[in-house]
Amino acid sequence: MIKLALLFAVILGITACSSPPPVSYYQLAVPMPAQAEPQPQPGTTKTLQLQPVRVANYLNGAGLVMQRSDVELLIASRHLWADALDQQLYRLLAEQLPPRLPAFQLFQGQGSADLKLQLTVDRFYAQANGVAIISGYYTLSSESEQTRHRFSYQQPLTADGYPALVSALSLGWQQLVDELIAQISQQDL
Fold first, then answer.
1. pTM of the prediction?
2. Helix H segments across 38-145?
3. What is the pLDDT of residues 106-134, one digit of tens each?
């Protein structure tokens, strides 16, 4: 009976030690922008249609992505995005663009707008060398023209681990938002 109790205690101890680590959830940390000055005069507001953000299929899963070599990507199973990446990026754009583009009213439905923005992200991960990569392209379309711009940002990780990866991706994302705002502001509509 004592041997059976001892065996049970050993098995219980082994299974307690082998429980999987907890799952961690992450979201991009981007500060809310200050309101741009000056405010436009009534009647001079243009409409900006923000179309859904497209991300590469392998990025839109739940796991954060690390590039281990030129041909190998690792998708984390215990370090996950709190929201789908495409939805998170869209929401951040919808929050950041209006305060910094007072001459534009954000238009999120279907229909005609003075300017349309379509963003596609094809890389959004860290490389083995400790650098976060964000790349893709965006298209700005008006009635008279359509321009396509490629973007690529590299942001060094300040430490090891997934929190540092998400922080670096957040900084890279902010660089892209700054570029978008500059491009949209230059549009002659």
1. 0.83
2. 85-100
3. 887 777 889 999 999 999 999 999 999 99
